[in-house]
UniProtKB/TrEMBL annotation:
Residue ranges constituting the Sister chromatid cohesion C-terminal domain according to the UniProt record: 1357-1538
Protein name (Swiss-Prot/TrEMBL): Sister chromatid cohesion protein
Family: Belongs to the SCC2/Nipped-B family.
CDD domains: SCC2 (cd23958)
Predominant cellular place of this UniProt entry's protein: nucleus
Domain of life: Eukaryota
Disordered: annotated span: 1-144, 210-235, 260-312
Length: 1683
């Protein structure tokens, strides 16, 4: 009889907007299941039921349907049992001790177990945890019902409890033994969590019976018996299952939208990466609407929560319980649906989608935020999360226990989701698959705490478990692998979703996930996931191979039955063999397709240009880079065979992207080229390293393509079997090894299939040929049979020892070696040389960055195998790029060869010279790199000539324009020469003295060889040794002094015995001693000086003169340091000098006399004090001079008299320079009388007047020049003489005259004077510094009272320079090298000392920068840098004037061929050095361009041919400037356009008004030719010579138009882009780098009169025609494509 229905309940059973497939129209559903019979009396112990036929209706129950709540509350007729502390057991990881949820006392009091109803009080609880004690009942009282009986009983009890509810029952009155207190609608109660756990447990036991139940099917003797029933969930009635699923669905929906942490408000859902699927069900929004009867939990959450809002602890507790119950309900639903092959109508898409959505929601809104909150160090998490992760209280521990229960429920449901999704009896829709994918992928995008040191204090680990996240990820990985393997149509979408989700993550989340490998290294979790998916793609082949194996066995069985046996004749390859070959040939298609999806997805999102346009492109590049890096990390590992597949495809794509690298001039696909070159070098290096590793070993595996030897095949087979066995063993520990084994087997099967097919073809060919190949046929048949057997047994598991539970570390190492060797003969074995060829071809690419990256990639390859560089094509490619037009490319080439030279010095001879030449490269980075390289190469090579060459080139860098290069060179020489251990005492004690001496001798020989290269009086090596001492501490200075002394000692010993010094000569030895003596005079002792004295003689040869000159300078520098006891040496030296002074040799000349007199004065002043001899010498010279002056001017001196006079004036002037006779007269009374006999006035002034008189007396240029030189000696002694009127008159006359020798001599005298003044000043500063340090702060009274002794001399230098600056600047631009060199020296001194106004010097410096001599232009550039650093804003006023000065200078150098660029070998602007200084900062750069572009804005009425040449000169400079950004190019184009719109329009209007009117009205004009526009044509006025200025202006306007067009084409800028760009406003367009599309200067072929003058009327007419053609083409010619 039909039971009455509860009122109002049918309204909520089936929602109208979403029909429930679980609701049936059958009348069975409307009938409440009949109740069970009354239980037998308590004394009947056999009251347990066993359903023998579950398809029959259950027996009527004596209990009627409860009508009232009182009836429902009546106690069951059960035997009372003692109260026990019961806990439901769920098959989950154990809960940490601190977080085990105790059973509340109230629940114990009110709860009655459903089993107790069934068992009459004697059964044990199935839900007890394994740790709980047993009830203590006897064995005979155990509940022996099968799990299906228990499940049916529990379901009936649930239905009975629900049916017994009264219509008006309150929620608080619900029976808590069955229903949850969280229910919000009593008419639709939610099940209690313990009931749901018990349901899930029973379903699981029905699906997988326990061992006890399996044993119960045997009789007492152990003989199998027929079981009482076949326990299957499908035996339950459909209405029963439908109803229980609907009841569970309420709990599922109740927690679907629960958000206890409020993570969905203001933040991205969950982990911010995986939102709701796009392909999900359309009715989801309707299902998620709140319905009052669905039991949804209504959280009291403010719509705009703030961090300071109080936390609702009760609400948090309730929300977590609802979320847990929803997951338990979803777990139970999925357990039921996946337990058996149920009717299709039970698999409701709405139910399954709701369950999956609930699981995903609890993960995204609860589990992931809680885990990630531990990484929040800034407190950005919602308050509930901060409370859970940072609070320690009893209330917080209770909430954490709730999280523990929720997490355990989630981890238990994911394997059941896997089972349901992959079940063969239920076809899942696309929406369900997508939901499952999001659940599976989510754990891989979760950020965990990176601090694993303090595990005890980690809240997440203590709450969820130590390995909780790893377990969750493993379950998720198993799920995603199953989905990927069983749903091929979803594979591409899954991969794309994973990759696209990566860029949605923050950097912290992207970098947090690390998959730890077995060797301790890590790869990114996403990389591991992608590799696992690719490996899973091969599962279909295994299944299909199993089917073929069964069909082959069936065919063999039939063959045996029919009596054929194994003697059946036929072809070698049967149909099953061919089918197997076809299977394996296509076996990698799935894996390859998945790998292609990954590679194509990433590479298509890298962008087109070299630089990224948005953040997504940059992130995808980073993802791709990380993927390639991870692939190289696990390449050839046995458990990661997918790495080879992925890397092989990536290499093929990158190689293909470089196909057009030689011909492409545009920026198209530059991103792919950049990415390819970044990785191909590393990949090729790795492949080459592995190949060489196995090439060196004798036992090398050979691929099947390379041999037909059965032994080699057996070795290869054994290697594959060893790897396969290893993976099979590890598959029990790691599921990933199972999929790795599948893919590895498929790869091996593909090779076997191809080899087998080849054998079959060869055998067929052999059968059709003659019998001479019979022997080969036998070998071929044997090999083919082995290949066939191996192919057929690929998936056969080898018999293993049951006690062998894993592989040892030694076995793993052996397997790794085998796997690596196998990998090198598979897909990647032929990739090295294609990569090398692509890299070499990229060296010829037009873009600079491509060539640079190609060289770096080639360097990575050569590092792995240096012998690659010995290949002719590789060597030629690199050598050619040492002279590349780009400094970046040259730098990369030097870096590449440098590594090779250091690693392989045997081959360094091939490149040493070419590398050493690059030390003078125009690129700053190249020079620095070569310096470092030569320094590193120095100790490697043993060739002394190489050592000398290296050091001499380093010394030459003292002339470098860049101070950093100078410092680097000085530091390099210091380290090579003076930082050896041989000079330290410790080294002498420990090391071998002979070895130390040998090293020292070798070093001295190198230094001596270097000094021989610099033979000038002012050697740069001398400056270098001074610079080495600069800035050193006292200890470092002392150490350097000691090394200087050791070197000098070796050199002096070499004068005695030169056998030990290679390349020894006396000149080189003395020259080297002189260098160290000048650097540190104290290195030479008086004893050593005595050794040198015999070499001092009145020279008769040039060599002797050189030796004497150096010795004199050595003695002069070192004598002041000698002790007073060295008088004997002083006397000997004075005796040796006297004949050299009185009778100087012809070989010595005047230059030798200077050093001789200076040394004589030094020896007298410091050692002998023989001043009377100096006074007598001066008095004798003065007497002779006065006699010569008194002679009549008409009497011309003879040659001998002229030579004697020259010696006299030199001796007198030099004595006055080096000895202060006026001071000597005041200090020595004995000498006063003798000095007064010369003159009672100043001795220096007296000699000066005598020399001036001689200069005026004689007009001979030679004698005047020598007198002028002597005046220079006096100027150095007394600077005020230079400002005397007589001196000024002499100097003015010389500058005005055309005599170049005199001007050169005078400039040199001025330079010497300025240098001497600078030396005096620096010496005074040093003395003051020493004095101040000595007196330690005492005040100098001379300075305090205002001593003016030195004031008169202090301003002489400035006065002289300012007086003659005009002449100096003119001579600096002179074409006479001697005059120019001296003038530039003075100019350098002037700039450094600040002796003249910078605006006056600046135009000349700019002009000198354009000089074709690199040395001179570099010096000018260095001076420019000084002015630019001090007076940047001041120089802006002279931009145009300075540019014009450079043009005038070029016109003076080459009047017939003026160009604004120089080919080196690519076009380089003459003003590029100037532009390089200003382009680093935006404001000066823009000021420079704006100022110089105004040179094109000329006055039409005053234009000349010179203006045309200047405009062309500047246009060529603008066309070849090395622009840094596109803003610079756009600035020039914008200003050129403005000039065209004003001056250009005026020129067109005057030349041809009709053309201008036609353009303004938009009329089309025919092409203008010289024939259509003859002179006097009515289209324009008649031209004559009076209009040449207008014609010249038209040439300049045409130059502007051609320059603008050239810039647009060179840098790929369209007119539209120019018009959109706003001047002065920073933009992304302007900040883009300016990349040249070609390397050629602007061409004037279309404008012939830009390079030649206009002379005739025909020239005027031709220029007019050409101009109008150029003007009309503006806007008509093709525009360049934008980059």
């Amino acid at each position: 009889m039909q039971q009455p229905k509860t009122p109002h309940r049918p309204v909520h059973v089936v929602p109208k907007e979403s029909p429930d497939p679980l609701a049936f129209s059958s009348p069975v559903l409307s009938v409440t299941p009949r109740k069970r019979k009354a239980l037998p009396p308590p004394d009947l112990t056999s009251a347990k039921r066993v359903h023998s036929n579950l398809n029959q209706s259950p027996a009527p129950s004596p209990f009627g349907t409860p009508k009232t709540r009182d009836n429902g509350k009546q106690p069951m007729n059960v035997t009372p049992t003692p109260k026990q502390k019961l806990q439901v057991y769920v098959e989950l990881p154990p809960v940490p001790k601190s977080h085990r949820t105790p059973m509340s006392s109230q629940a114990h009091a009110r709860r009655i177990s459903a089993d107790d109803d069934d068992l009459g009080g004697y059964g044990s609880d199935e839900g007890h945890h394994s740790n709980m004690r047993s009830s203590g009942r006897a064995t005979g009282d155990r509940d022996d019902r099968v799990p299906l009986d228990k499940l049916v009983t529990l379901i009936e009890d649930i239905f009975e409890a629900e049916d017994s509810l009264a219509p008006d029952l309150a929620v608080s009155e619900l029976p808590t033994e069955f229903f949850s207190p969280l229910t919000t609608d009593a008419s639709r109660p939610l099940l209690h969590p313990s009931i749901m756990r018990k349901l899930t447990s029973y379903v699981g036991k029905v699906t997988r019976p326990t061992k006890r139940l399996r044993l119960s099917s045997r009789d007492k003797n152990g003989v199998p018996s027929t079981p009482k029933s076949s326990s299957r969930v499908s035996q339950l009635e459909i209405p029963t299952l439908s109803r229980i699923l609907r009841i569970l669905d309420r709990s599922v929906k109740a927690g679907e939208d629960v958000d206890p942490f409020r993570t969905s408000l203001g933040t991205v859902e969950g982990n911010g990466s995986l939102g709701s699927p796009v392909k999900a069900r359309k009715s989801g929004s309707k299902q998620q609407k709140a319905r009052p009867g669905d039991g949804d939990v209504e959280m009291e959450i403010s719509p705009e929560p703030s961090d300071t809002s109080p936390i609702d602890y009760d609400g948090l507790t309730k929300a977590l319980d609802v979320a847990r119950d929803s997951v338990l309900a979803a777990d139970c639903c999925i357990a039921i649906l996946s337990s058996d092959r149920l009717p299709k109508q039970l698999y409701s898409e709405e139910l399954i989608t709701t369950c999956f959505a609930t699981i995903k929601s609890q993960l995204n809104k609860i589990v992931y935020p809680f885990v990630e909150a531990s990484t929040d160090i800034y407190g950005h998490s919602p308050p509930p999360l901060q409370y859970l992760t940072r609070t320690s209280s009893h209330e917080c521990d209770r909430h954490r226990r709730q999280l523990t229960e929720l997490f355990q429920a989630v981890t238990s449901v994911i394997p059941r989701v896997d089972t349901l999704i992959c079940s063969e009896y239920a076809a899942m829709s696309e929406g369900i698959i997508i939901q499952a994918v999001y659940i599976a992928v989510g754990p891989f995008f979760m950020a965990e705490s990176g601090d694993k040191k303090d595990k005890k204090g980690d809240v997440v680990l203590n709450t969820l478990g130590a390995s909780s996240m790893r377990g969750l990820r493993l379950d998720a990985l198993s799920l995603i692998r199953s989905i990927f393997a069983n749903h091929e149509d979803q594979r591409a979408w899954i991969i794309e979703e994973i990759l696209s989700s990566l860029i949605k993550l923050s950097n912290t989340k992207q970098k947090s996930g690390q998959f730890r490998l077995r060797d301790g290294r890590s790869i990114r979790t996403v990389s591991a996931l992608l590799l696992q998916l690719v490996q899973t793609s091969a599962r279909d082949v295994r299944i299909e191979a199993g089917s073929l194996h069964k069909s082959r066995q069936h065919a063999n069985t039939l063959r045996v039955k029919e009596g054929y046996g194994d003697n059946m004749e036929g072809t070698f390859l049967e149909e099953t063999d061919m089918a197997e070959i076809r299977l394996y040939n296509a076996g990698l298609e799935s894996a390859t397709k998945a790998a292609k999806t990954i590679i194509i997805f990433l590479t298509q999102r890298l962008g087109k240009t070299k630089s990224t346009k948005d953040s997504n492109e940059a992130e995808y590049r980073a993802i791709f880079d990380a993927l390639i890096s991870d692939l190289l990390t696990v390449l050839f590992w046995p458990e990661w065979p997918a790495a080879s597949v992925l890397l092989s495809l990536a290499c093929k794509y990158m190689v293909a992207s470089m196909d057009d690298v030689k011909t492409s001039n545009t920026n198209e696909n530059n991103a792919a080229k950049t990415m390819a070159l970044d990785h191909l070098g590393l990949i090729a290096a790795r492949l080459r390293t592995t190949t060489l590793k196995f090439t060196e070993s004798s036992a090398t595996l050979l691929s099947l393509d390379d041999n037909t030897d059965t032994k080699a095949f057996s070795a290869l087979t054994s290697a594959h079997k060893a790897v396969d066995s290893h993976l099979l063993k590890r598959a029990s520990e790691d599921q990933a090894c199972a999929s790795a084994r599948e893919l590895a087997t498929v790869i091996w099967g593909q090779e076997l299939g191809a080899a087998l097919k080849l054998c079959g073809n060869r055998m067929e060919d052999g059968d059709s040929s003659q019998s001479t190949v019979a022997v080969d046929q036998k070998k071929l048949l044997s090999l083919g049979s082995k290949i066939k057997n191996e192919l057929q047994g690929l998936w056969t598991d080898a018999s293993t020892d049951v006690f062998d539970i894993g592989s040892s570390s030694d076995d793993s190492v052996d397997v790794d070696v085998l796997s690596e060797e196998i990998g090198m003969i598979q897909s990647l074995r032929n990739m090295f040389f294609p990569i090398l060829n692509v890299v070499l071809s990229a060296l010829e690419a037009p873009p600079v960055f491509v060539r640079t990256k190609a060289l770096r990639a080639l360097g990575q390859i050569i590092t792995s195998d240096p012998s690659t560089l010995s290949a002719p094509n590789v060597r030629n490619a690199i050598e050619g790029h040492l002279l590349d037009s780009s400094p970046q490319v040259r730098d990369a080439a030097v870096e590449l060869i440098g590594k090779y030279m250091i690693d392989s010095p045997n081959f360094a001879e091939l490149y040493f010279t070419k590398i050493a030449e690059r030390i003078a490269d125009t690129g700053l980075s190249v020079r620095k790199r070569v310096i470092k390289l030569l320094k590193a190469f120095y100790p490697i090579t043993k060739d002394r000539q190489h050592h000398i060459d290296i050091c001499s080139r380093l010394v030459f860098r003292m002339f470098d324009e860049d101070d950093t290069v100078k410092d680097l060179a000085i530091k390099a020489v210091e380290e090579l020469w003076f930082h050896d251990a041989y000079s330290t005492s410790a080294a002498k004690k420990v090391g071998s003295h002979a070895q130390d001496k040998s090293a020292l001798l070798s070093k001295v020989a190198v230094i001596m060889g270097v000094s021989a290269i610099f033979k000038d009086r002012q050697s740069p090596l001398e400056d270098l040794l001074h610079q080495i001492m600069t800035g050193k501490s006292a200890d470092e200075t002392s150490s350097l002094h000691q090394r200087y002394a050791e070197i000098c000692e070796v050199l002096i010993d070499g004068l005695v015995d030169a056998a030990e010094l290679p390349g020894f000569t006396v000149v080189n030895c003395v020259r080297t001693i002189h260098l160290f003596t000048v650097a540190h005079p104290a290195v030479l002792s008086s004893t050593h000086a005595s050794t040198l004295l015999p070499y001092l003689k009145n020279a008769t040869t040039h060599e002797e003169q050189v030796i004497s000159d150096y010795l004199l300078r050595i003695f002069r520098a070192s004598i002041p340091q000698f002790p007073k006891t060295s008088v004997k040496f002083g006397q000997d030296l004075q005796l040796a000098l006297q004949p050299m002074v009185l009778k100087p040799s012809h070989a010595a000349g005047v230059a030798g006399l200077q050093e001789t007199v200076a040394c004589m004065c030094a020896i007298v002043q410091h050692l002998t004090h023989d001043f009377p001899r100096l006074v007598a010498l001066l008095r004798s010279c003065n007497t002779r001079l006065q006699q010569t002056i008194k002679k009549p001017s008409t009497e011309r001196p003879s040659t001998a008299e002229s030579r004697a006079l020259t010696i006299l004036i030199f001796i007198a002037a030099l004595l006055c320079e080096h000895c202060n006779f006026d001071k000597l007269r005041l200090e020595n009374e004995a000498l006063r009388v003798d000095i007064d006999t010369i003159t009672k006035t100043s001795i220096t002034e007296h000699v000066y007047r005598s020399l001036v008189s001689l200069y005026e007396k004689f007009s001979e240029s030679g004698l005047r020049g020598r007198i002028l030189q002597c005046l220079g000696f006096l100027f150095r002694a007394q600077p005020t003489l230079l400002t005397a009127e007589s001196s000024a008159a002499i100097m003015d006359a010389i500058f005005i005259s055309d005599e170049e020798d005199g001007r050169s001599r005078l400039l040199r005298i001025m330079q010497d004077f300025l240098l001497s003044e600078a030396d005096k000043h620096s010496a005074e500063q040093k003395d003051k510094g020493k004095l101040s340090a000595a007196v330690n702060g005492d005040v100098d009274m001379q300075e305090l009272v205002g001593n003016t002794d030195g004031f008169a001399d202090s301003g002489v230098s400035s006065a002289v320079v300012q007086r003659y600056i005009r002449y100096i600047l003119n001579d600096a631009l002179s074409r006479n090298e001697k005059i120019q060199s001296a003038a530039v020296d003075i100019l350098s001194f002037t700039v450094k000392q600040g002796l003249a106004h910078p605006l006056e010097l600046f135009p000349v410096i700019i002009a000198l920068e354009t000089n074709p001599s690199p040395a001179l232009s570099s010096r000018a550039s260095a001076l420019h840098a000084i002015l630019h650093g001090k007076h940047t804003t001041l120089l802006n006023a002279r931009f145009v004037l300075s540019a014009r000065a450079s043009f005038d200078y070029q016109k003076s150098i080459s009047p017939t061929n003026i160009q604004g660029y120089r080919m080196t070998p690519s076009p380089t602007a003459l003003l590029q050095r100037w532009y390089s200084l200003v382009r680093d900062k935006r404001v000066p750069r823009q000021d420079f361009l704006k100022a110089l572009v105004k040179v094109f804005d000329v006055e039409i009425s005053s234009t000349s041919m010179d203006d045309v040449a200047f405009a062309r000169y500047m246009a060529e400079n603008f066309a070849t400037f090395d622009y840094k950004t596109q803003e610079e190019v756009l600035t020039v184009i914008k200003y050129l356009t403005a000039i065209l719109s004003t001056t250009g329009v005026q020129v067109v209007e005057q030349l041809s008004p009709s053309h201008l009117l036609s353009q303004l009205h938009g009329d089309a004009l025919p092409a203008t030719t010289s024939d259509s526009l003859p002179q006097g044509s009515p289209t324009g006025p008649i031209m004559d010579a009076n209009h040449t200025k207008l014609i010249y202006s038209s040439v300049i306007v045409a130059i502007i138009m051609l320059l603008k067009s050239h810039l647009k084409m060179m840098y790929g800028i369209s007119e539209d882009k120019c018009s959109k760009w706003v001047f002065g406003k920073k933009s992304a367009l302007g900040d883009r780098p300016a990349t040249r599309r070609f390397e050629r200067p602007v061409s004037w072929n279309r404008l012939p009169f830009a390079t030649r003058p206009i002379l005739t009327d025909e020239d005027i007419a031709a220029q007019r025609t050409t101009f109008l053609e150029v003007w009309n083409e503006d806007g008509v010619t093709a525009e360049p494509e934008d980059d």
